[in-house]
Design a protein that fits this description.
The chain is an alpha+beta fold.
Length: about 375
């Protein structure tokens, strides 16, 4: 068993480093992955895993792992939030040590649990009694980790649970912002079009009667009125679409995109990998909303048109600032669908990109599929870890 003095020396260092990473705005998934290895090493475990609870709370998604065979890692990618000792840790909000790994062995269909792994620990990542993720440590012997290791793991779990809670709050804020924008846009459309359509509705019977009575002068006058009113309605609608703005709080873009990527994989069954090399990207609230809607529309087209098996959302440093790419390995239908005449989704994406001062392109992906590429001219797009 590891010496208590070694753990006591590492404890404040690890916690201070996690705190510093959170204060600097470091991506949470990166933090979860980064501190898995030193925790596994300090606990003298043979393997480890870190999982995030889905938004709906029905399962744990594997974020990172160490020491798991590829086939075991694949089967452990998604587990129920009530499964085995992880489920006990989640349901009872406490650390759980277990040597009964039969549930894990049945799910993984291999010899790892019960042979290479004889004991396992589940550490809930929790805040105020709410579980938001789980750390796992796997041991090749059935001896439970000592008190110092348990204390360190509990502190790490509480700190990262606080960060996960903050991430969920930011994602919820963005969801509310989206709902409010939709409601305001519905009001704008109604106010701009209702009177125009009511006028047209009144004029059409008069136009019909004038045509039936062969009153050419009246028919032409009614036709001109209908044409002018429809033109006004069209102009009003275009103005709403191109100039509508969201009034939100800046600083929540990374959290919103992380949440969007997680929901996409769960709802569509298409694995979506989020790679963010610009964790310090900061935009004003209107620009963040525009970027979010561009990514959302691109992912919607992947879901409905691409017939893809995998997707990627990449945020990278670019020559002019930052570059955001939505990629898929589908049949290439996305580009054709988005580029077809009358595709209002692409038009809105282009208009939002222009409003950002950026550039939006849709093209073929090397190896098959489609790439939607948004280039942003921002000053603070400094590269970071994926």
């Amino acid at each position: 068993m590891i010496a208590d003095s070694a753990v006591r020396g590492a404890d404040p260092a690890i916690l201070a480093e996690i705190t510093a990473g959170l204060a600097a705005g470091q991506e949470l998934r990166e933090l979860l992955e980064r501190f898995l290895e030193p925790v596994v090493r300090l606990a003298q475990a043979q393997g480890g895993a870190v999982r995030m609870l889905s938004l709906a709370g029905e399962g744990f998604e594997l974020v990172s792992s160490i020491g798991l065979a590829p086939d075991v890692e694949k089967r452990e990618h998604w587990v129920s939030s009530h499964c085995g000792f992880c489920g006990v840790a989640s349901d009872e909000v406490r650390m759980v040590w277990s040597t009964d790994l039969t549930t894990c062995a049945r799910r993984s269909r291999g010899a790892y649990f019960g042979r290479d792994c004889r004991g396992a620990l589940a550490v809930p990542l929790q805040h105020r009694g709410r579980v938001l993720g789980v750390y796992n440590l796997f041991f090749d012997a059935d001896h439970q980790p000592g008190p110092s290791v348990v204390s360190l793991l509990r502190s790490v779990g509480d700190l990262l649970g606080l960060a996960l809670d903050h991430l969920r709050l930011e994602a919820e804020h963005m969801r509310v912002t989206v709902t409010q924008e939709r409601q305001r846009m519905a009001g704008e459309v109604h106010d701009a079009l209702a009177q125009n359509l009511a006028f047209v509705k009144l004029r059409l019977p008069l136009l019909r009667d004038a045509i039936a009575a062969h009153h050419e002068q009246d028919a032409l006058r009614y036709l001109d009125e209908v044409r002018d009113t429809v033109g006004e309605a069209h102009s009003s609608l275009r103005e709403i679409i191109t100039q509508f703005r969201t009034r939100g709080e800046a600083g929540s873009l990374n959290a919103a995109l992380t949440s969007l990527a997680a929901r996409f994989g769960v709802h569509t069954g298409i694995p979506l990998q989020l790679i963010n090399r610009v964790p310090q990207l900061r935009l004003n609230s209107e620009a963040e909303a525009d970027v979010y809607y561009i990514v959302q529309e691109a992912l919607a087209n992947v879901e409905h048109h691409a017939r893809a098996r995998h997707g990627w959302l990449r945020i990278e440093p670019g020559p002019a600032g930052a570059e955001i790419r939505v990629e898929d390995d589908g049949v290439g239908a996305l580009g054709g669908a988005m580029g077809s005449p009358g595709h209002h989704g692409l038009e809105i994406m282009q208009e939002r990109a222009q409003r950002l001062g950026g550039e939006l392109t849709v093209g073929a992906r090397r190896g098959g599929g489609t790439v939607v590429r948004l280039v942003l001219p921002v000053a603070n797009a400094e590269g970071g870890a994926a």
